[in-house]
């Protein structure tokens, strides 16, 4: 009897425990995906720790995805184990050979005192489908499995990039998933022998004599079983409470009034919003969540702050890349109507907060990915203005890669101001920047070639000439390594994954094996 119970339910219980552990981690991963204030404060607390330890916080999205994959894996194995068990149940319920399995399967399902069944198949004609859709465990199992499939499939990169609203709304089915998971074990379909029955008929003593259970002189009686208590709610209770508290905090902050002080439309469909909010405090490279109720009540989108902490306002630059951003820009372009109301939650921390911890910094932005570096470069401008002697950074290499010339327009004024500031202070070598244009034709190239001898670039108006094509990263890293043979170099990227792989590879390749010599540390913005 003991072996029969173990063989049928050990795999299910073991996998359920692992599934519960992964769900526990998943809720924490979801919280890290949301990136609440705790992320920023944790980075501050770990500020005195090694750089490699702090950097692990920046892999929160990777952690989120890995735990989700583990949940999918254990869910699949859990379901397969149940299917095998129900197949065994069906065969045992239909058996007439008088075996231990068949006798245990015929234990009564009726009456309060006799509610000691072990096999959920109440009759030989009962099907697996019937048990699945008429039991709490089966029905909730189907619901949470469907919810998991929808969340996973809608989270694929193609869906996220092309149909963000589908991803956003579908991903919030996790609420149904966790509710279903919490009540999944209430039906008691996983059962064990009662304490009283164990004392009367212990499996080690009575399993072999199951045919004498009905005899009056037998010391073994029919075993009685009961549903094991639900355990899944324990795994989600604590992180669930944390999530609810975080949402309450974020709702409170999002309701605080935001005043839009300036609206600027830049070329290439880029909208700049300058805002003020009571009690708002930021650091370089941080981002906020923005909601516009007139566009969508529920959608919140992350945008990097482009203002500096030294400024008396905070700003974001929003490029039209989807339905939500296009509708938002269209709402601000309608001059006859009042300015749309904006709600803001944040700011939240990113890897760029550590930028001033490095002696040498390499900033790489692709398209609108330049926004976190706008905040950094503005802050540097203010630090030089105020003669901040605590600035550890000695040299900055800035690379901006764009497809079209119009994208450079809104950033030109800042770079021009930095050029003048560095010249006045005699620190021309402090900021080395390169602009790369990847989307160009023969007319643009010919025009730039004919005007190459001019003091300023014909495309941007800056002293630094625009390069056509993509950077040769091996050459760039080799030059930086030779120029700073004993420095710690922080490489920061806000751009696509393909570029991240190239830069990460170069960081490993050009870092010296000697820790006293040049070391490159790769950091990527994740949203």
From TrEMBL:
Gene3D superfamilies: Nucleotide-binding domain of ferredoxin-NADP reductase (FNR) module, Translation factors. GO terms for cellular component: monoatomic ion channel complex; plasma membrane. This is NADPH oxidase 2. It comes from Canis lupus familiaris (Dog). It is a multi-pass membrane protein. It catalyses: NADPH + 2 O2 = 2 superoxide + NADP(+) + H(+). GO terms for molecular function: metal ion binding; oxidoreductase activity. Its cofactor is FAD. Pfam families: FAD_binding_8 (PF08022), Ferric_reduct (PF01794), NAD_binding_6 (PF08030).
């Amino acid at each position: 009897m003991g072996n029969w119970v173990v063989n049928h339910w050990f795999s299910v219980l073991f996998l359920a425990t692992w599934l519960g552990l992964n769900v526990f981690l998943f809720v924490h991963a979801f919280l890290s995906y949301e990136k609440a204030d705790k992320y920023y404060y944790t980075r501050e607390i770990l500020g005195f720790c090694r750089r490699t330890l702090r950097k692990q916080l920046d892999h929160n999205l990777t952690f989120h995805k890995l735990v989700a994959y583990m949940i999918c894996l254990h869910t699949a194995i859990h379901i397969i184990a149940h299917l095998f068990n129900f197949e065994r149940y069906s065969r045992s319920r239909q058996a007439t050979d008088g075996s231990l399995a068949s006798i245990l399967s015929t234990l009564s399902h009726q009456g309060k005192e006799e509610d000691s069944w072990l096999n959920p198949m109440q009759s030989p004609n009962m099907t697996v489908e019937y048990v699945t859709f008429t039991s709490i465990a089966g029905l909730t199992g189907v619901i949470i499995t469907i919810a998991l499939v929808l969340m996973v499939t809608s989270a694929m990169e193609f869906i996220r990039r092309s149909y963000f609203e589908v991803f956003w709304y579908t991903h919030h089915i996790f609420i149904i998933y966790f509710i279903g998971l919490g009540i999944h074990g209430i039906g008691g379909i996983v059962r064990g022998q009662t304490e009283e029955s164990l004392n009367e008929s212990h499996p080690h003593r009575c399993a072999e004599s199951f045919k004498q259970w009905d005899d009056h002189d037998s010391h073994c009686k029919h075993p009685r079983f009961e549903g094991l208590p639900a355990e899944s709610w324990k795994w989600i209770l604590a992180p669930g409470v944390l999530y609810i508290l975080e949402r309450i905090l974020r709702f409170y902050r999002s309701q605080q009034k935001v005043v839009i002080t300036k609206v600027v439309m830049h070329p290439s469909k880029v909208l700049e919003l300058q805002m003020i909010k009571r009690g708002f405090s930021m650091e370089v490279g941080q981002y906020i969540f923005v909601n516009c109720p007139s566009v969508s009540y529920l959608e919140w989108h992350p945008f990097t702050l482009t203002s500096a902490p030294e400024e008396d306002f905070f700003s974001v630059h929003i490029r039209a890349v989807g339905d939500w951003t296009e509708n938002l820009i269209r709402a601000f372009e309608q001059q006859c109507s009042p300015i749309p109301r904006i709600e803001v939650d944040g700011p939240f921390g990113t890897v760029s907060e550590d930028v001033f911890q490095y002696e040498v910094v390499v900033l790489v932005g692709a398209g609108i990915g330049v926004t976190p570096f706008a905040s950094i470069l503005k802050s540097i401008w203010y630090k030089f203005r105020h003669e901040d002697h605590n600035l550890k950074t000695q040299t900055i290499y800035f690379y901006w890669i764009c497809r079209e010339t119009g994208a450079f327009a809104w950033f030109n004024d800042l770079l021009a101001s930095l050029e003048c500031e560095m010249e006045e202070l005699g620190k021309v070598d402090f900021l080395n920047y390169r602009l790369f244009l990847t989307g160009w034709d023969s007319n643009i190239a010919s025009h730039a070639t004919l005007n190459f001898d001019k003091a300023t670039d014909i495309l941007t108006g800056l002293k630094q000439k625009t390069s056509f094509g993509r950077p040769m990263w091996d050459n760039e890293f080799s030059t930086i390594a030779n120029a700073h043979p004993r420095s710690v170099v922080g490489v920061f990227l806000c751009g696509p994954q393909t570029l991240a792989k190239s830069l990460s590879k170069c960081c490993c390749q050009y870092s010296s094996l000697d820790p006293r010599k040049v070391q490159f540390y790769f950091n990527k913005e994740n949203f």
